[in-house]
What does this fold into?
Amino acid sequence: AQSVAQPEDQVNVAEGNPLTVKCTYSVSGNPYLFWYVQYPNRGLQFLLKYITGDNLVKGSYGFEAEFNKSQTSFHLKKPSALVSDSALYFCAVRAVMEYGNKLVFGAGTILRVKS
Amino acid sequence: ETGVTQTPRHLVMGMTNKKSLKCEQHLGHNAMYWYKQSAKKPLELMFVYNFKEQTENNSVPSRFSPECPNSSHLFLHLHTLQPEDSALYLCASSRGTGGEETQYFGPGTRLLVL
It folds into this structure.
């Protein structure tokens, strides 16, 4: 089955410290991977994606993610967390279906950054 | 903002009501999507339209009826809903339905069915 796992329901980090939000995937074919963020009462905002090329992908708001094919992971990282980064983060992977492509989303990880 | 708008933002309806959700995208995209987001569950893809043609109906009950009159507008018509249909309904759009395309989401409609 094509799926995404976000093993942590919640990640807590102090402001100024580095943060990591984990994501692992299982797909057939080449993985296309995405990270989205959702603030309260808002829709999902696109952060970054990996399609091909450099394994380290840089995105919005200082976030980056590293594609690791051998570990089937695509962890989201930021060198120095801000309180305003507190939100719900979703990892997603392109799944190839009989009728086309669809995005399969993880269950989400709540990030809490404390000052 | 992402260029995808949704109205209304909040909706309360009884199980016998009929209502419609509206989505509009200003990005020049050709594909539009409806998703359902329930508490503590992954996003569920409901419908996909590409160039106004429905390309996917993800086993959604018939009490949800989508309509896509053009590539910029998408509706979700609701009738005889159940309390378990209460959720955040998200609309998204993308240039196409290729796997590398980024989907851009609207702010959602928070639906409560009484």
Summary: The interface with chain A takes residues 2, 4, 6, 40-43, 45, 48, 55-56, 90, 92, 97-100, 102-108, 110 of chain B (CB under 8 Å). Residues 26 and 91 of chain B are 13 Å apart (CA to CA). DSSP finds no helices and eleven strands in chain B.
